[in-house]
UniProtKB/TrEMBL annotation, chains A, B:
Keyword Flavoprotein included in the entry's annotation: no
Keywords tagged on the record: Oxidoreductase, PQQ biosynthesis
Gene3D superfamilies hit by this protein: Heme oxygenase-like
One GO molecular-function entry: pyrroloquinoline-quinone synthase activity
Family: Belongs to the PqqC family.
Gene: pqqC
Protein's organism: Thermohalobaculum xanthum
Protein name according to UniProt: Pyrroloquinoline-quinone synthase
HAMAP family, per database record: PQQ_syn_PqqC
EC code(s) of this entry: 1.3.3.11
SUPFAM superfamilies in UniProt: Heme oxygenase-like (SSF48613)
GO biological process, one term: pyrroloquinoline quinone biosynthetic process
Length: 251, 251
């Protein structure tokens, strides 16, 4: 006997439950960051490593679009790349992330080189890009739905960083403020698309597993960061070390 | 001006230096394991996660062979798959690893299901399989050269585990004993192949980077293990938890 699919509402609730249980706002590193307990070097390590994730998002979206035959779906997706890379003189999310890098005392060119990124960060992020390149379109779109849970973390982050850290100001927080505008539009489209297309129990299971996979990608990045940089720091060979990659004024 | 390649001897020394600096025998988890300081659950977590690496090695070798046009090279490589998967009634390395799983109190079927593997382990190991599938043959062979450094760690492991842990006996240690015979043959071939084919400075750099990449793959697995299971254990969502997957007698 084949299982019946959940109703649209029940399936959306199932997806939201995955976020409630596994999204990285539950990770202790985020509590530490937002609560003002991170040292400057822990913040820098986060900025260096999270840059790698940001830098791969447009490549992930291009990999997705390279597999989409429907011009309307490609058109709806295209703004994600523009939001990260910039367009028509508007700066994108990657440039805004580099302003945060500068604000925390890092040389933006060093951060953009991705030289100090931990291997564990690369493995997790690259797994995400490849997932989107290789899995079904449904699984690829479903894996983007962690954006459902992002506005909460961005709002907490802006508030927490502004309250606790001298580097936080309108310029360095511009990445997060902008994502508060962009993410809801993207995720409303993605969620509707997944609810429309996951029309069997099997497809619903695959979409839910894809969203779980993506929560693993995010969680693993913070695990690596904690292990590498929170005392007793155990920085893996080749990764950024405190004192490296500082901008001239901060060195 | 193009850089001149190193001599064969100097290039081999460069590769060996990478092992001296970055091979995972330098990782604190190995000292803990070999020194008898791991709890039974830490040993189990290692067995559960390391199984995933073992299980992907023959897939990695098949991916390599799928890209090799030269029958002689495929023939030389094929024994690696047999060594892991078994042949003609001889059991392979994977079956021997599951004996170790049983000896430490785990249900071999649970371990073989790979259900409890940490996402970070999957990301690292899958990155290795994909590296071998996508990079040049030279880089693929070079990435296998961590075997140059394996006999030392296997010998230390047999001695350390036998001395410190009740589960260690001839049967449970058979994986490591057998690798002491197999690895030197494989790596002698691989090393000669790399030294023969890395005939420009650029290729030598690529081969050295491939070997560094592989040391990252191994190191990241132990970082994840330490973070997840050594106190204060921070087990990521979905990964094996103490008490799960035990064999009937041990439960």
């Amino acid at each position: 006997m084949t299982a019946l699919p959940l109703s649209r509402e029940a399936f959306e609730a199932r997806l939201r439950q995955i976020g409630a249980e596994r999204y990285h706002d539950r990770h202790p590193f985020h509590h530490r960051l937002h609560g003002g307990d991170c040292t400057p070097d822990e913040v820098r390590a986060w900025v260096v490593n999270r840059y790698y994730y940001q830098s791969r998002i447009p490549m992930k979206d291009a990999a997705f679009m390279s597999r989409v035959e429907d011009p309307a779906l490609r058109r709806a997706w295209r703004s994600r790349i523009e939001d990260h890379d910039g367009a028509d003189g508007r700066e994108g999310g990657i440039a805004r992330w580099l302003k945060l890098a500068e604000a925390v005392g890092l040389d933006p060119a060093y951060v953009a080189s991705a030289r100090g990124v931990m291997p564990a960060t690369r493995f997790a992020v690259d797994a995400y890009v490849r997932f989107v390149r290789e899995k079904t379109l449904l699984e690829a779109v479903a894996s983007s739905l962690t954006e459902l849970f992002a506005p909460r973390i961005h709002a907490e982050r802006i508030e927490g960083l502004l309250r606790h850290y001298a580097f936080a100001d309108d310029i360095s927080m511009s990445y997060f403020r902008k994502r508060l505008d962009e993410a809801p539009k993207d995720v409303a489209f993605g969620l509707a698309w997944v609810l429309d297309h996951a029309d069997t129990a099997e497809k619903q299971d695959a979409a839910a597993a894809a969203l779980e996979f993506k929560t693993d990608v995010l969680w693993a990045q913070l695990d690596a960061l904690w292990h590498g940089y929170v005392a007793p720091a155990r920085i893996p060979p080749g990764a950024w070390r405190p004192g490296e990659g500082l901008r001239a004024q901060a060195a």
